Amino acid sequence: MCGIAGIYHLETPKPVEPARVEAMCDALAHRGPDGSGVWTAPGVGLGHRRLSIIDLAGSPQPMASPDGRAMLVFNGEIYNYRELRCDLKAWGAEFRTDGDSEVILAAWRRWGPECVTRLHGMFAFAIYDLDARTLFLARDRLGVKPLFLAPLSDGSLAFGSELKALLAHPLLRREIDPLAIEDYLAWGYVPDTRSILKGVTKLPAGHSLLLRHGQPLPRATQWWDVSFAERRRGKVEDLEAELLHLLREAVTSRMAADVPLGAFLSGGVDSSSVVALMAEASAQPVKTCSIGFDIAALDESDYAAQVARRFGTDHRARQVSPDDFEAIDAIAGMFDEPFADASALPTWRVCQLARESVTVALSGDGADEAFAGYRRHVFQRGEDRVRGIIPQAIRGPLFGSLGKLYPKADWAPRPLRAKATLLSLAADSAQGYARAIGFAAPELRDGIYSEDFRWLRGGYRAEHAVIDLMRGAPARSGLDRAQYADLKHWLPGDILTKVDRTSMAVSLEAREPLLDHRLIEFAASLPETMRVRAGQGKWLMKRTMRRSLPDEILYRPKQGFVTPIAQWFRGPLASSAREIASSATLARTGWLDTGRIGTLVEEHIAARSDHSRLLWQLLMLDRSLTHLGIA
């Protein structure tokens, strides 16, 4: 696991100053404390920061191919590199190291841009081909590893693992994209389709770029996609056996490391499944760690401890309290862009805890998106049944009117909070799901925007991206389309960004076995009833893991890694909530109606409504803009 950065001149191959690339890499020192390097040639410069995981001393980067015709910088892990190495040796490739980096170079020399289809793993890399004078950039299938890009005024393209690498370049414009603010307030993150800064983009997951001197910047090429259009047939027992095989392969392939390895353990289905399979494959106790909260209703640490006892793991636990709120500036610095998933705080804490004893940790991320594990997936399937029965001409006016009249009952038991469901049913499947996964609903955003910002935003609405993804998905049903949107939008934008930044901030490599692409492709082919049944998501996965985990773990209500910000903002952090409305940084932007925000703060503190997610969003926006030094 590492950090990469570089500069490539698209037009004239001007000299690249090594010091400039070095400064970009220095901004990524946390991603690679074990080594660094810079290489330049006419028109190109590549830089690398290394966190040593495999072949600890033998794979420094930037790395040249044995024939000297290609140069690589690479962030990630290739889990099938040993098998590829054997194939490439038979072809005639020579190897000087025992790591996976040199395998990528050999794969490039043999297959060119198609080499990415042979790689199983998480990666973002750059290869400069000295013969063709081309630069090849690639990102893994699901977007586990990030890659930011920015065309600059001198005709070059700068790239780096994090935005802070680009911010180290003096020619980068620091101008906020107002449409990114709309995206951020809708989702709680800036998705991969945009960046907080105008002119900065992100190479999409499963895409690559081939750049040539003297040619304009091309559009990225998609080299991988997941399809929900096919349905796998077979007996439940056969599908269960196939799933178990894929799970074992995914976990064991990610246990290869030349440094201490462990796992995050929340006590939920996914992390418990990963730990169960690790324990099965390991002769030594698995090192596990978990984070708890000082609010009992949101604390899962007892379940984590139960799983740890079951598999005899070497378990460590720690608690997050409101005092950790002081770390918010550090969180803003990790992400560069505003990021409002409040679970970033406990995720960072669990990464810190893990790093005290291991350098690599396996996580349970990805199963909810692949196997329909979120409550919203169950609701989506049920709502689509209603949409299939009641025509839109009747459903739209009926449920739309009821939804507008129904109170926003945050205080009520969950079954009585029907407003969101009614408004969702008034829309089509894609529109309803886009509303369901949002942080701040369109009408709430409109209520806090200033007139000037509404003019800047124009006709753009953040939900359009998800609606377009769903309508164009290779899928058969509304549930398929919802999961496709999650894998393409939510997963790389929120979940994987959170894990990458918080783990890399402490120089920890996080691996996601449940995002093995073969496992994802298998899950996408399952009939709906193998994903959602009797009001339960992840049906086949839970059935498969009953061999290892008790029903108390598998079938308890899904809780998630929830930070108790609603309670904190009404208690020890109430004064911090009030400071949001008077933020000088937010006021200077002119984007928001601070008077309206003040009203929402008081409504939340008085427990008349739950605005905690919006307040957290605004707080993180304030700190992020301060970190960027823009507002």
Kindly describe this structure:
The protein is of the alpha+beta class and 631 residues long. The protein folds into three domains: 2-177 and 195-222, Glutamine Phosphoribosylpyrophosphate, subunit 1, domain 1 (4-Layer Sandwich); 236-371 and 483-554, HUPs (Rossmann fold, 3-Layer(aba) Sandwich); 564-631, no CATH class. The strands form three sheets. The chain has a six-stranded antiparallel β-sheet with strand order 2-3-1-9-8-10. The chain has a six-stranded antiparallel β-sheet with strand order 4-5-6-7-11-12, covered by helices on one side. Helix 25 packs antiparallel against helix 27 (594-605). The two termini are 33 Å apart.
Q: Enumerate how many helices there are, as a single number.
A: 28
CATH superfamily of the largest domain: HUPs
What coarse outline follows from CA principal-axis ratios?
A: globular
Q: Could you tell me the number of beta strands?
A: 17
What is the second-level CATH architecture of the largest domain? 3-Layer(aba) Sandwich
Measured on Cα atoms, how large is the radius of gyration? 24 Å
Task: Classify the oligomer.
Answer: single chain
Mean pLDDT: 91
* Count of discrete structural domains: 3
Could you name the CATH topology of the largest domain?
Rossmann fold
> Helix content range of the residues, please?
40-55%
Distinctive features:
631 residues, alpha+beta, Glutamine Phosphoribosylpyrophosphate, subunit 1, domain 1, Rossmann fold, 3 domains, six-stranded antiparallel β-sheet, 28 helices, 17 strands, 44% helix, 14% strand
How is the topology of this model organized?
Layout: E1 2-9, H1 18-26, E2 35-41, E3 44-50, E4 63-64, E5 70-78, H2 81-91, H3 101-111, E6 121-129, E7 134-139, E8 148-151, E9 156-160, H4 163-167, H5 178-187, E10 201-202, E11 207-212, E12 221-222, H6 236-253, E13 261-264, H7 269-281, E14 287-293, H8 301-311, E15 314-320, H9 328-335, H10 344-355, E16 360-362, H11 367-371, H12 375-389, H13 392-405, H14 419-426, H15 429-436, H16 442-448, H17 451-457, H18 463-471, H19 478-504, E17 509-511, H20 517-524, H21 528-531, H22 539-545, H23 551-554, H24 565-570, H25 574-581, H26 584-589, H27 594-605, H28 612-628
Parallel strand pairs: 13-14, 13-16, 14-15, 16-17
Antiparallel strand pairs: 1-3, 1-9, 2-3, 4-5, 5-6, 6-7, 7-11, 8-9, 8-10, 11-12
Helix pairs in contact: 2-3, 6-7, 6-22, 7-8, 9-28, 10-19, 12-15, 12-19, 13-14, 14-15, 15-18, 18-19, 25-27
